[in-house]
Design goal:
Elements (H helix, E strand, L loop, with lengths): L1 H23 L3 E12 L7 E11 L4 E13 L2 E6 L2 E6 L5 H21 L5 H11 L3 E13 L7 E3 L4 E6 L4 E15 L2 E12 L5 E7 L6 E7 L2 E12 L1
Length: 241
Amino acid sequence: MKKALFLCVAALGLLQSVHAQEGRGFPNEIFVSAGVNVPLYDNVGTDAVFGIHYGHSYYNGMGFRAGVQYSPSVAGIRQVYGIPLAFTYRTRSRSMEERLFTGIDSAAESVASGWYHDDNHFGDGIFGFLAGLFDRVEFYAGITPGYIAGGNSAPTENRATWTTRWTEKPTSLSLSLDAGANLNFKIWRFDLKLMPAIHYNVLDNYRLHTVTTDPQNGQKITQDNALRWLFTFSGGLAFHF
């Protein structure tokens, strides 16, 4: 009996400690991220992107973030480095009870809608439940100055369409304008993050050349397109302190 009472008291003490730490909040975070970098153009491949970031948030939700990131290649040009700098705004952090009730309500609504319309909304219910568990949303906007170490990509031929393509790097220094959001799922002092973002290259860093040969007369038609719009989607793990 005494042992059971001791375990109950210890468990309550642990829960109170965790709740106190959550309520006090930790304004600083450091997180690592990994994801995909997608140029928003036809026939341009997707690349990987990795990063490590530091962020600070004030009590009114405003804050800032800085870090370093690396892509093995972008549009065929290798070794791309960047220093993302951004201003951030975080919504209010919700308690675990609020998140659970929101997730359950969202899932129940999706399933009930599917039942009423004689449709299978089980997948929508799961998605709604998971979406409701996110602790808060962070919006951000900023810039990423960087450096592109690699040279022009090697030409690739497509014999079926009689085309040759390669990406030129007119300048090594890079600068992009960034805007995105972070969806955060809090577990004690850790965050799981989903991070979609859009980027616009201010400088002329990636120029796609396409040469199409007419099989009848051998005439060549050249097209040049600057690749300026990129989309990234990353996942991350953060630690608050």
